[in-house]
Amino acid sequence: MKFGGTSVGDATSICRVVEIVRRASCTDQVIVVVSAMSGVTSKLVEVANRAGNGDLKQALAILLEVKQRHESAAQPLLPSGAVKNRVMNAIRATLQETEEVCRNVCETRVLTPEKADAIAGVGERLSVYLVAAALAKAGVSCEAIEATELIVTDEHHGAAEPKMEPTRAQCQKRLRKMLGDGVIPVITGYIGATEDGTLTTLGRNSSDYSATILGAALDADEVVIWTDVDGVLTADPRLVPSARNIAEISFSEATELARCGAKVLHAKCLHPIADAGIPLRICNTFAGEQPGTRVVPGTRSDAGEVKALAAVDGLALIWVSGDEHVRISDFQVRGTIALEAVGVDIRWVCCSNSSGSLAFIVASSAAEVAAKALRSEFLSRPQKGTKSRIDVQWPISVITAVGHNVCGSSEFLEGTFDVLARRHIRVLGVSRMYSDTSFSFVVASKHMQAALAAAHENLFRQAETQNLSVGYF
Ligand code: ADP
Ligand code: MG
């Protein structure tokens, strides 16, 4: 069971976590994985950057804020006495250690990837103390463990990948007996360690990934992600309030949804459990009675049925265009090589209605570098007998419909594009990278929310009307 940042965000939420774990432990062997308290990792990343810039005063001020946040959560959770002292001391010692790292970074003005990870990974180390102590107080036998002792990774700091063989060996050695003895391991998400024991992080928001790595390493029957929404919804409820919960979704649909912007799951988290076919469930910590969403290996949806919409903002479109005689495939190959050479990640490749042009979609922050690389590739060496042009359009958003075989669904395309046209929202391009499970289109960022809402209403209206007619509300 993995609990996200909001689920461990304050004392009241941690009490809910305790109740969920206590109940589950009556019938099952449970492993708990926890994130940092909501917002804490971003603060820690800022601490690291401030220290790297020599701003020790501000770095320590933010660390103090982090300390106070944990101390004030501990107050109502723990009665005074030995346990409380132990937890407070552990929090203080961990932050003292972090302060030392910051001082060192400040003096040298070098924020190495190792030190950046050491600072960013502190939030989970702090939250396991709180969750384990709260569980113990409720009479649940448990032990806080840092995943540096369990998840063995490569040395790619900031986005480390697990090495499953040694991870499995460590987990079996360290956790099997505990589980057999009825002790619940309470493990830090987000972090691991290299073979020589240096702390690494698995990438932002990767505690879901930690949970599935541990689940796979222990051949779990199920992985449950506890979060602040009822499960995977038909769209992000923050953008589309009428989004509905989805009872079941396939591994490939869920992975595609995450890749295309749905924050509810980490994009890599289904990899470790996919081969073993370990099912995953997403549930609401704050509404445990809801059935949640089951993520299952196969698919039972109808071809062409849209399961959900996702959106990514903060992107730029860089058009490469020529006259009607140009070869688009040549644009794609040469453009891809040119962008890879300057280290720009291509998020999508898309095309427009007019022939003779193709666009690369990249993060807005990479737009300038990308446009320069494409200009030097195409303007200096145009295709024979043609002229090329490079145009940048930003900020733009990519909206993706996910579902089994959705890209072949003309019903979706026609219906949605009609609705958008009626609302005067221009579709700037459509994805060229055809996938089995998704279809993406581009709008200006200022239209993202309206486009999502319109597409959602068009796709899911019928079901909403049915719900209304049976007095659902
Ligand atoms: P946690 O801290 O529990 O990991 P996250 O913030 O990472 O939680 O993910 C949960 C959030 O994901 C929700 O609050 C919601 O706003 C967002 N989200 C985006 N797309 C979806 C979707 N399709 N279904 C559910 N939630 C979504
Ligand atoms: Mg998350």
Outline the structure in words.
This protein is an alpha/beta fold and 473 residues long. It has helices at residues 11-27, 40-52, 56-77, 82-108, 113-120, 122-137, 164-180, 207-217, 251-259, 271-274, 328-341, 367-378, 410-422, 448-469, and strands at 2-3, 32-34, 142-145, 184-188, 191-193, 199-201, 223-227, 248-250, 280-284, 293-296, 308-321, 348-351, 357-363, 389-402, 429-431, 438-444. The radius of gyration is 24 Å and the shape is globular. Residues 465-473 have low confidence and may be disordered. The longest helix has 27 residues, at 82-108. Helices cover 43% and strands 18% of the residues. The protein has an 8-stranded mixed β-sheet with strand order 3-4-2-1-7-9-10-8, with helices on both faces. Strands 11-13-12-15-16-14 form a 6-stranded antiparallel barrel, surrounded by 4 helices. Strands 5-6 form a two-stranded antiparallel ribbon. The chain has 14 helices and 16 strands. Helix 3 runs parallel beside helix 6 (122-137). Adenosine-5'-diphosphate is lined by residues 4-7, 35, 205, 227-229, 232-233, 235-238, 262-264, 308.
